Structure of Superoxide dismutase:
Amino acid sequence: MSNTLPPLPYGYDALEPYISQQIMTLHHQKHHQTYVNALNAAEAAYAKASTPKERIALQAALKFNGGGHINHSLFWKNLAPSAAAKKGTGGTLQDGPLKKAIEESFGSLDTLKKEFNAATLGIQGSGWGWLGYNTQTKRLEIATTPNQDPLLSLVPIIGVDIWEHAFYLQYLNVKVDYLTAIWNVINFEEAEARLLEATGGSKL
Ligand SMILES: [Fe+2]
């Protein structure tokens, strides 16, 4: 059971000018591939481990690299070529269940962006910013996770990588500019599909 690097659903230059071709190429081919390789190595070692102690020793590698693989696989799909750059539909939120849920939970998309960016900027070190769906309260919430921890407390709807490898070559230390720019390439259609899956609405 080997994990593999999923292909990007668009070209490496498709998210420009908001995320550069250089970042996308390195991020996908080098960083994500490294998580996949290390996860496969950890899973293979786990399969051969014969004692609880050996298995416990592999937990950190499984969590870090497994989380990295899960998070990046979600991330590529929740980005899309930008409508503002006349390349696609990225960054546009059409009327529908997601827009309704965002307005119910945050008042407006602009408020969501402000709250999301503020929470994500507050991450100390590397991590991820999330818009997630709470299946108990049936509302959308903002969350963050450190390192490569996957979002487990909510169903992930949108995830944004705030590791330096995701932005530094283009935005240097100015994280807020990266976070402002990325909303131009958020794939709200994918986000809505995840919300419908989480709520069972796709069966209606
Ligand atoms: Fe990353």
